[in-house]
Design brief:
The chain is α/β, with parallel strands linked by helices and 396 residues long. It starts with 10 loop residues before the first strand and ends with a helix.
């Protein structure tokens, strides 16, 4: 039996391209929604060509569980076609520059006249209102203005990038969260609403005490490399054959780490016995732990961390993830039969729901518009001759 997912029966139309909007669509699709991806005729979403290596495979993740139709949103007939499609949807996901949908006659006010229950999830750099709303915004800019970039990296170097498009992914996640909340309200009222997710605000949301620390104490957080100042020990330490992450910054856990190191006296030493004291002697403490780990293998340190119940773990890359028995037992990484590349390993759908689990029901569409006939024909009732005309005129 195929389990359909918690959002089975929900229809989502996804406009926009690259990461924020499409990742929101991926999250909804992973949870069971029928996601109809609208792409530009011919070229499709630029994400089709993203990723490292000769084979660009990032599309296979972000477009999984989606069907693809094409529509030229820059012409009246394309706009009218998509408006008809949205009229039959529960959710619209878009990440165009604010004002673009309104220019095309596809703004929320217009769409709600046809479909009062529609939820419109809008992802943008600065939100739909405010003096910056009409500025172009990419994920990196949102990370910078939201406070993330300034605190990432080594203190003697310029700010660093996270390594993934975290600003876009956070915005997509908050957009998805907003959709789920709006669906709950719609169940009671029958009315849809707009979810306004801004890149910089989504980053700001996860910045912990950065703003109130400044407001209360005048503290400006600075780049601190691999540590969080005052939280010790919590760092990556070098071993004989690799790197290992240890988080023993709680008093009782540090005592157990001291025992694992063969130096139980450190647990009662006034320089290290309390959270505040360890924070004051953070560099000194990290030095002692590093001196200990560099004489052991990763496997030896791991065994001791397990024995003494200390939160710790190896620093993984893709090869280690694929080989790990815990990843395997929980199906954290799955193999999907893709249309372009055959079997391809990728991360599963998370979080896990016990009764209506998320998952990958269909691979990413290999060609822009490959579902035109199925969707425009079945859902909108267009016949083959009309589809051929629209295609010949560059509308789809």
């Amino acid at each position: 039996m195929v389990v359909q997912g918690a959002l089975d029966g929900l229809r989502v139309v996804e406009l926009g391209q690259l990461i924020a909007g499409p990742f929101c669509g991926q999250l909804l699709g992973d949870m069971g929604a029928d996601v109809i991806k609208v792409e530009q005729p011919g070229s499709g979403d630029p994400m089709r060509d993203w990723g490292q290596g000769e084979d660009k495979v990032q599309w296979e993740i972000i477009a999984r569980n989606k069907r693809s139709v094409t529509a030229n949103l820059r012409v009246k007939e394309g706009q009218a076609l998509v408006r008809r499609l949205i009229a039959k949807a529960d959710v619209l996901v878009e990440n165009f520059k604010p004002g673009t949908l309104e220019k095309w006659g596809l703004g929320p006010d217009d769409l709600h006249r046809d479909n009062p229950g529609l939820i419109v999830a809008r992802m943008s750099g600065y939100g739909q209102t405010g003096p910056y709303s009409d500025r172009a915004g990419f994920g990196g800019v949102g990370e910078a203005m939201g406070g993330w970039r300034y605190i990432v990296g080594e203190p003697d170097r310029p700010p660093s990038r996270m390594g993934v498009s975290i600003g876009d992914s956070l915005t997509a996640t908050y957009g998805c969260m907003g959709v789920l909340a709006a669906l709950h309200v719609r169940d009671r009222t029958g009315k849809g609403q707009v979810v306004d997710a801004a890149l910089y605000e989504s980053v700001l949301q996860v910045m912990e005490g950065l703003v109130p620390e400044y407001d209360r104490s005048g503290i400006i957080r600075e780049r601190s490399g691999s540590i969080l100042p005052g939280i010790a020990p919590s760092n990556v330490y070098l071993c004989k054959d690799g790197q290992f992450m240890i988080g023993a910054n709680k008093d009782a856990i540090f005592k157990r780490l001291a025992q694992a190191m063969g130096r139980p006296e450190l647990g009662d030493d006034e320089r290290y016995a309390t959270h505040i004291a360890r924070g004051r002697h953070q560099a000194e403490l990290d030095g002692m732990i590093s001196d200990w780990t560099r004489n052991l293998t990763v496997e030896e340190v791991d065994a001791l961390m397990i024995e003494y119940s200390i939160p710790a773990g190896m620093v993984y890359r893709a090869p280690e993830m694929l080989a790990d028995p815990h990843f395997q037992s929980r199906d954290a990484i799955i193999e999907v039969q893709t249309e372009r590349f055959g079997p391809l390993k990728m991360q599963n759908a998370f979080p896990k729901l016990s009764a209506t689990p998320s998952g990958v029901r269909r691979p990413a569409p290999a060609r822009p518009g490959q579902d035109n006939e199925a969707i425009y024909g079945t859902l909108l009732g267009l016949d083959k001759a009309e589809l051929e005309r629209l295609s010949a005129q560059g509308v789809i």
